[in-house]
Amino acid sequence: MVAGEVRLLAEESGTAAASISTLIADIQRTSADAVRVVDEQARGAFERIAIGTGTLRTALDEVGAFATANVASTERMAGASTAATQSVQQLSSTAEQLRGVAARFRAGAGAERGHRHRRGVDRVGAWLSDP
Q: How confident is the model at residue 129 (pLDDT cuts 50, 70, 90)?
């Protein structure tokens, strides 16, 4: 009877060992699948990060180009504004000179009118006094 129990225990040990071996193989296969899935997801995440970084870099390059163009445009506008200011100053100076010339003409014309008026009065006086 003891030998039968030993044999039964040996068979159960063999069955348990086979079951443990199957469990270990299943765990190894599941672990390998998990590692593969995590690796694939990590690669996918890194690829998306790389694409996102490239897109961001392209966008930043475009913003930089736009900013450079904006600076150039602003500089051109500043140059045009300076030129316009100089033109206005020149026109103002020319207008001031023209006002001075016009004032001299008015002063000269007034003096001429006064001189002609006196000559006319003198003639009328001479005509009235001439018998």
A: low
